[in-house]
Amino acid sequence: MNEKTQDKVTSRLEAFSDGVLAIIITVMVLELKAPHGTDWVAIKPVISELISYIMSFLFVGVYWGNHHHLLHLVKKLPASIMLANLHLLFWLSLVPFATGWMGENNFAPFTVATYAVLLNVCGIAYMVLQKTIESAHKDDDELKQLMKKQTSKEIFSLASYASAIPLAYLNSYISVAIFFGVAIMWLVPDKELLGKDNWSE
Amino acid sequence: MNEKTQDKVTSRLEAFSDGVLAIIITVMVLELKAPHGTDWVAIKPVISELISYIMSFLFVGVYWGNHHHLLHLVKKLPASIMLANLHLLFWLSLVPFATGWMGENNFAPFTVATYAVLLNVCGIAYMVLQKTIESAHKDDDELKQLMKKQTSKEIFSLASYASAIPLAYLNSYISVAIFFGVAIMWLVPDKELLGKDNWSE
Amino acid sequence: MNEKTQDKVTSRLEAFSDGVLAIIITVMVLELKAPHGTDWVAIKPVISELISYIMSFLFVGVYWGNHHHLLHLVKKLPASIMLANLHLLFWLSLVPFATGWMGENNFAPFTVATYAVLLNVCGIAYMVLQKTIESAHKDDDELKQLMKKQTSKEIFSLASYASAIPLAYLNSYISVAIFFGVAIMWLVPDKELLGKDNWSE
Amino acid sequence: MNEKTQDKVTSRLEAFSDGVLAIIITVMVLELKAPHGTDWVAIKPVISELISYIMSFLFVGVYWGNHHHLLHLVKKLPASIMLANLHLLFWLSLVPFATGWMGENNFAPFTVATYAVLLNVCGIAYMVLQKTIESAHKDDDELKQLMKKQTSKEIFSLASYASAIPLAYLNSYISVAIFFGVAIMWLVPDKELLGKDNWSE
Q: D163: how many CB neighbours lie within 10 A of its CB?
């Protein structure tokens, strides 16, 4: 198989993933029901829905950025990578559902814990995709190094999400703060710490 | 017509199909209404909707994968292929509707049978697209071989879906098991059986 | 500006249009409310919604095909073409709304007439886009010829849609038959008549 | 990093943005509930929703056009640009929500003022993206000049949107007229004024 064909394969996987991620991120806005009144009192119950929306927007946005850089390194595309990618998209596709449930119930502990579980599962699915790509590119050193650097951040994220599950029953706003904290950790470039952008080439 | 122009034609057909498939797969999540309570009792009625969602996600995911590989082989694009592709997308676009109906009614026999009919029609539309592509590429041996290998799997799928129609009235969970079985058959690579990935290049 | 840059411009216009068209065509399925019963009686009121869906799917599908071939010929991209394209997308974006209204009201004359008006406006917007492209490519003979061939078909379509407006008050099914007739006229290749596919290169 | 890789990076950022913008622009049509009657009386309450839809369609359409030309100039893609782009998309994603609220409440002053605030925030987010791109391309003179030309138009837009906030309480239709005025200012090419298309290359 020549170079041209391979290019096309990766680009369609990216196009499909971009499509699904773009829809996931935008579809959540449909859950924000326009309030029926026209003043601050009417908009108040929308606040918790808005906060969940912002949180999930950041979460999916971070995934898009990381997914973007991960697929950038893919040079061959066995069925296993396509499956692992579909698996990740499946869990991410449940984010709008979990977001709507949490927002509608004003961050009730059970809904926040469910959300935390979903974030954990998404994180694991992402690591599975990473490992799948790694095992298909065994002699690619650049890829290995980039993965190693990210793994510590990912394990920290998973541990944070896991701690947010029981903490939701103590005070669900602690969990919400954890979700935002992790998202910001991913969004702020590591430039100062590592001398390099985490998202730059 | 030169090579460059032809490339562009195929890529836009793929982009449009990817868009439609990405929307079909994601839009189904909108059918999952966030439960109004916040405990396991509230989430229970959602379970059957969730199962139908997973099933249809797998189904459309398999179609995306196969469609991806099929179009990969297309070298010319007469109107007939564009029509056959639109025809396939039409039937696939009804999947969210059938999924929502089945999930909402806890796998009532009639809804499961309807779903099985739709899967059958989608399968036939896919075979029509395949034949159309084949007849437009009469001297492409690589394409012919790949098609032959897939056809037996497709006929087995169609037979399974057909058997799921009457079986739904016996016990609809038998049909659901068949749907999952067929999806898994497509997702698991044939590596062990045929010495080759079904989705790899 | 070099060739490479120009390529990119056209491809993003196509990508955006494809995105909008893919969403328009798929979003209509959301209007099909899953019936709450589980037998033929429950599915009956869905029939007229299903028919409108099929009609609009064909209509938007034809537009996608024609738009595809039209943009294919674009070699420069002044603001005027981008505007004319946005203008066309605007009217097409109202198709799901008109479709839902007509389906929900069992083809009541007023809704069918409104639908016919919208199809007319879409057709005019398409011709405006065509003229805009033509006037930006004054010395492109290939483009001029293709346009001439299509124009007679387009005028016939517009006349048919126009006749469907008053006919809807006589019997709305006559109008529905006209809509289907025009769609089929576009979908069936002209091969026999003109010795050439209308959608092939 | 070579030229080829860089190309791919930008194109995926564009594809994702196009996806999100296409969904934003189309999803608003879902807010247009098909009227349940079938005559002019039934369609009347839809009019104000339709006007808000048209307004937001124009607004997002203008953003797509400008975004298109802005990204066209991007030659490197540090994390900061990706973040600034995500930030812009976030605010734009709230447009369907604000549109629905305003349309449903017949341009009640509070909803129109909220809409004006959102347009302002989107405008600021766009300028932030512009500055971010500018500071990443310090020695690109072509980019600097194009930015300078646009900046005056942008500041005029922001001032107009800002004035629309208090004016909504005087008469909300003045604000609506301002929104349309600004959109039209962006859509009409500057050819006559500046001797150059604002959207052409």
A: 14
Measured distance CA(C79)–CA(C77) in Å, rounded: 7
**What mean pLDDT comes out for the span B68-93?**
87
Q: Residues A125, A129, A130, CA angle at the centre, nearest 5°?
A: 115
CA D18, CA C12: separation in Å to the nearest integer? 8
Chain D: nearest CA to C121, how far in angstroms? 15
Alpha helices, DSSP H, located in A32-140: 40-43, 46-71, 79-93, 95-104, 109-136
Q: How far is CA B189 from CA A125, B148, B195, in A?
A: 19, 17, 10
Instruction: Give the residue among A120, A132, A131 at the shortest CA–CA distance from A77.
Output: A132
Mean pLDDT score, A121-126 = 96
Angle at C193 (CA atoms; ends C191, C196), nearest 5 degrees: 35
- State the chains in contact with B (3 or more Cβ–Cβ pairs under 8 Å): A, C
Q: Is B45 on the interface with A (CB under 8 A)?
A: no
Query: Measured between CA atoms, how close is D8 to chain A, in angstroms?
Result: 8
CB atoms within 10 A of CB A183: 21
Reference A198, options D97, D150, C115, D80; nearest CA is D80
Main-chain dihedrals φ then ψ at residue D183, nearest 5 degrees: -60, -45
Q: What integer pLDDT is reported at residue A42 of this predicted model?
A: 74
Interchain CB contact of C91 with D (< 8 Å): no
- Residue of A80, A82, A122, A169 to mutate, interface with B, max B Cβ within 10 Å: A82
What was the pLDDT predicted at C65? 86
- Which residues of chain B neighbour C29 with C-beta distances below 8 Å? 24, 27, 93-94, 96-97
ipTM score: 0.81
Mean pLDDT over D116-125 rounds to: 95
Alpha helices (H) along chain D? 3-31, 40-43, 46-71, 79-93, 95-104, 109-136, 141-170, 172-187, 191-194
CA distance A110 to D30: 31
Instruction: From B159, B170, B57, B62, select the one nearest B107 (Cα to Cα).
Output: B170
Residue type, B54: I
Number of Cβ atoms within 10 Å of the Cβ of A53: 24
Task: Kindly identify which residue of chain A lies nearest to residue D29, measuring between CA atoms.
Answer: A30
Calculate ∠ Cα B64-B65-B68, nearest 5°. 80
Tens of pLDDT along C8-45? 557 778 888 888 998 898 888 877 877 777 677 777 77
CA closest to D106 among chain A residues: A38
DSSP A122-154: HHHHHHHHHHHHHHHSTT-HHHHHHHHHHHHHH
pTM: 0.85
Task: Indicate the pLDDT class of residue D189, thresholds 50, 70 and 90.
Answer: low
Nearest-CA neighbor of D21 among C12, B86, A90, A50? Answer: C12
DSSP 8-state class, residue C93? H
Question: What do you get for the CA distance between the two ends of chain D, in Å?
Answer: 27
Q: What are phi and psi of A198, to 5 degrees?
A: -80, -20
